Amino acid sequence: DAKTTQPNSMESNEEEPVxxxxxxxxxxxxxxxxxxxxxxxxGPEYVIHGLTSNVNNRMASLxxxxxxxxxxxxxxxATLRDAAVYYCILTKTxxxxxxxxxxxxxxxxxx
Amino acid sequence: DxxxxxxxxxLVMGMTNKKSLKCEQHMGHRAMYWYKQKAKKPxxxxxxxxxxxxxxxxxxxSRFSPECPNSSLLNLHLHxxxxxxxxxxxxxxxxxxxxxxxxxxxxxxxxx
Lengths: 111, 112
Description:
The complex is a heterodimer. By secondary structure, chain A is mainly beta. Chain A is 0% helix and 45% strand.
C-alpha cells in the first residue's frame, strides 16, 4: 500500500490561510488522494478528495502536484474550529476497499 | 450528529466478559468498516465488509469477531479481551471504493 508522509504538527493564526502538505511519492496512477480531519472526541470527518486536478469545495481546496507525488490541503481562512488532526490518505480505485491512515498533522490555530 | 450511529458510546468490560458494539447507517452504503484508534494515534483498519461479505481482515485477533447481518448494520463481538484492547472503536461506511468514508463518533472501550 502506498504511504503518505505529513508533518507532525503545524500552527496557524486565526483568519489566515493554512497550507497542509502531504508527500506520497509511491502513489500509483489510479490512487485517489483523500483528506480527513478529526476534531477532539469525534470520528474523522471527510474534507476533500481528488485524482489529478485541483479541487475546491466549501471546506477547503486540494492542490495536487503535476507528478502527483505530493498534494496540499488549503484552508483559506483558519478558524479556531479548524483545530484538528488532518489525515492525508491514498485510496485505490480497483481491488478491495482499503483506507489506510497515515500519522496526520495536528493543526493548532492561534487566536 | 453523524449519519453513522454507534452504540454504546462508552463500554467498560472485564477480561472474561462478552459484549458487542453496534453500528448502523441508512445511507444505502454497501461498504462498512471497523477501525481501532489508540490515544494520539491514527485509526487502524481492522475489518472491511463489502456487500455484506467480509473482504478484509487485517490480521485481527480472533477475540474480535465482526458480523454484518444486513446492509445497514455492522456488529463487532468482543470476547476475552485484554487491557491493551482498550481504545476508541470507530465504524465507517462508504458508497464505493472511491467515495468518502462516513464515520461514527466511536465507542470508547475500557477493558479492566
